[in-house]
Amino acid sequence: MKSHVVGIAGAGNMGMQLALLFASHDIATVIWNHKEQPSYERDIFRLATIQSKLGLINKENIKKVIELISYTNDISVMEGCDFIVEAIKEDKEVKAIVLRQIDVVARNAKVLASNTSMLSITELASFTENPSRFLGIHFFNPPMSMKLIEVIKGELTTDMALEFALNVLGEINKHPVVIPETPGFIVNRLLFPMINEAVLLLSEGISDAKTIDNCMRLGANHPMGPLELADLIGLDICLSILETLMEETGDVKYRPAILLKRYVRAGKLGKKSGIGFYSYRKNI
After folding, report:
1. Domain with CATH 3.40.50.720 in the chain
2. For 111, 172, 202, 230, which has the most beta carbons within 10 A of its beta carbon?
3. Do 183 and 211 touch, CB atoms closer than 8 A?
4. Which keywords describe this protein according to UniProt (predicted)?
């Protein structure tokens, strides 16, 4: 087992997948959640089983991997972690509350990071008393199989914190790309204008969702079309990222398509709601 201990703040789907990722590489991991989650054991076992079917965790090692993960709703347990990743919902005010709490109890942690996909790392760091150890570590979903990790330095992030983060990420066989803080980082700056343009094509009646997606799969060698990907990400998240990009850059090229806003207002959020640009409900 590796000598350091990883802490994950947040026991949602991403938080549990991150815990499995670190534990599958023999790293002791703590998941903290703000409340008790009675279904945790069932959920973590289900996720581990899915990963084993995908060949990402050896079936015989599932029990060992899960045993390396501790679940708690007592934030003081984070005191024993030296590498902490906040993976709660993309809400700056909520993140601020959690980051302040972790900062107080985990004073000896070498790195405190956020898995944010769009928020300012320097601003998030300002909610802590030690912004020099704070950085962004943007994992892509699903983190077990996606190789890329964007590592974002804030204005006050030290080289020491960055080096420690890169060493830990190297132990889980990922490909980290270090970038300075910029709105949307690299992938989202490229990805979301494409998704937005696909929504515009759909709203203008140029073609249907399936054809638009097939064009990008067959013509650009994308494994998934932009509208299908938007449904997977969540249309509410897509809208939020586009709005943030437009606000941060002042560039109207990020202005969200009206159709995207309409779908979000109607609760058509993609896979998680059962309907978005495609229907995921049975018998519909």
Report:
1. 5-180
2. 230
3. no
4. Oxidoreductase
CA distance 238 to 188: 10
Out of 138, 196, 228, 273, pick the active-site residue.
138
CATH 1.10.1040.10 domain position(s) in the chain? 188-273
25 annotated active-site = no
117 in active site: yes
Q: Which of 114, 115, 117, 273 is catalytic?
A: 117
Q: Is 188 considered catalytic here?
A: yes
C-alpha 247/C-alpha 31 separation (Å) is 33
Tens digits of residue pLDDT in 5-26: 999 999 998 999 999 999 999 9
Q: Which residues, listed in sequence order, are joined to residue 135 by a DSSP beta bridge?
A: 113, 153
**Residue 274 identity (one-letter amino acid):** G
CATH code reported for the domain at 188-273: 1.10.1040.10
